[in-house]
Specification:
Strand order of the largest sheet: 1-2-3-5-4
Strand content: 15-25%
Helix content: 25-40%
Order of helices and strands: HEEEHEEH
Largest sheet: 5 strands, antiparallel
CATH class: Alpha Beta
Number of strands: 5
Number of domains: 1
CATH architecture: 2-Layer Sandwich
Radius of gyration: 14 Å
Number of helices: 3
CATH topology: HIT family, subunit A
CATH superfamily: HIT-like
């Protein structure tokens, strides 16, 4: 069965897309820790990030960096935190999280529920900064 992220790649599930090319996709997390929390994935369904071939790993990280730079310009924060956990969805993904404190990247905190309009506006701002 395809992962939820593969279903987003195929268009079966909608997403607030930020950036996309033929190999990678960035979109807002619908259960964010902070406004602007973005997920960056390879379009190929590979469960574990360290199973990526070296060139693909490096390209994914370079793609994530471009998105992180735009995210930092778009959402008030001190830094963009990066996390790769990989237990919740069996598809490689990088979390990019706007940070103002160390606790902003605590995955045990309750997730935010942001209105559709806020998600759309945030996605548009990040896209515009790319």
């Amino acid at each position: 069965m395809a992962s939820v992220f593969s279903r987003i790649v195929s268009g079966e599930i909608p997403a607030y897309k930020i950036a996309e090319n033929d190999k990678y996709l960035a979109f807002l997390d619908v259960n964010p820790l902070a406004k602007g929390h973005t997920l960056v994935i390879p379009k190929a369904e590979i469960d574990y990030i360290f199973d990526l071939e070296d060139p693909d790993y490096l390209e994914l990280m370079a793609f994530a960096k471009k998105v992180a730079v735009a995210l930092r310009k778009s959402v008030p924060c001190i830094r963009i935190g990066v996390a790769v956990i990989g237990l919740e969805v069996p598809h490689t993904h990088i979390h990019l999280i706007p940070l103002n404190t160390m606790s902003d990247i605590n995955f045990s905190l309750p997730k935010l529920t942001l209105p559709t309009e806020v998600m759309q506006e945030t996605a548009a701002k990040i896209k515009a900064a790319l």
